[in-house]
Design a protein that fits this description.
With 289 residues, this protein is of the alpha/beta class. 40% of the residues lie in helices and 19% in strands.
């Protein structure tokens, strides 16, 4: 009887010790994860010394791969570099800028789960999106227009409404898809993978128009080195007014403030002139406000 009790005691003690050794690391790991999630963007960057910024490679003139240099270029790329520089000044330390490609489909999720800290791309600010992420103050204003062949301008009159015979290319997941496409339900809407594909189909007569933000359509024509006089944006005044902002994580007022003050700075005003001045800019554009 005594031997049985002793064995039981030893087994029970061993079991308890096993539980203790197993439990403590799990609890510690959970606490570490919780602490990481609770850190603000600036606290995380200060600790890791890395700023993770998302970019798109198909959104000229904001971010695109140059056919000449095969390097990432664009106004948004320069804006992020400016934000990075001011971040280093604020934290008084060297910070690595890490760029990660994002898409229309995953850009918001990557911000939400903390994989990246900022996306400054051609992203329209709207109420629905502001429920899941924060936005900076606007850095650019454009609007949805139709890109058509010059020879089709008179035939294709969007102000009279489209018909079933008109084929329009659009990007799934964009504001054109979510908010503008339902206005013309009778058109033959054709999903395209990117604006380059849409412009190619337009040039070959496979579709009648491409619907997107005017600046992005002009940017793609320039990147492809196509003759811009062969196309026209209609109507002259866009159907909508789209304010672009940087996507930011929710509830990070200090990070928001740093990004907003950078966008409002004289340095960024100079960048905007360099890229978009109607006469001397790399991508001349008459912005709408």
């Amino acid at each position: 009887m005594f031997k049985l009790s002793t064995s039981f005691f030893l087994l029970s003690s061993s079991f308890l010790l096993s539980i203790l050794f197993i439990s403590f690391p799990v609890i510690s790991l959970a606490e570490t994860l919780e602490e990481t999630l609770e850190k603000t963007v600036l606290e995380k960057i200060q600790q890791t010394r890395v700023l993770k910024a998302g970019f798109r490679s198909d959104a000229a003139p904001f971010s695109y791969i140059s056919s000449e240099t095969n390097q990432l270029e664009g106004y948004s790329v320069e804006l992020v570099k400016l934000i990075h520089k001011r971040l280093e000044q604020k934290l008084s330390k060297s910070i690595k800028l890490e760029l990660q490609e994002v898409s229309l489909e995953n850009r918001f999720q990557l911000i939400q789960n903390g994989k990246i800290d900022i996306v400054c791309a051609a992203t329209t600010i709207n109420n629905r999106r502001e429920e899941i992420v924060d936005f900076s103050i606007p850095f650019f204003t454009t609007g949805i227009q139709f890109l058509v062949r010059k020879t089709d301008v008179e035939r294709f009159d969007p102000m009279r409404g489209t018909t079933g015979k008109v084929s329009i290319g659009f990007l799934a997941g964009s504001t054109t898809d979510e908010e503008f496409r339902p206005i013309y339900p009778n058109a033959n809407w054709q999903s395209i993978s990117n604006r380059a594909e849409g412009i190619s189909q337009l040039g070959h007569g496979k579709i009648d128009a491409v619907a997107s933000d005017g600046i992005l359509l002009l940017g793609e024509i320039r990147v492809q080195n196509k003759t811009i006089s062969e196309f026209e944006l209609i109507p002259k005044i866009p159907f909508t007014f789209e304010n672009y902002g940087c996507i930011l994580p929710l509830q990070n007022p200090d990070w928001d403030k740093l990004v907003d003050t950078t966008i409002a700075s004289d340095e960024n005003t100079q960048l905007l002139h360099q890229w978009f001045d109607p006469e001397k800019g790399k991508f001349p554009y008459e912005s709408f406000r």
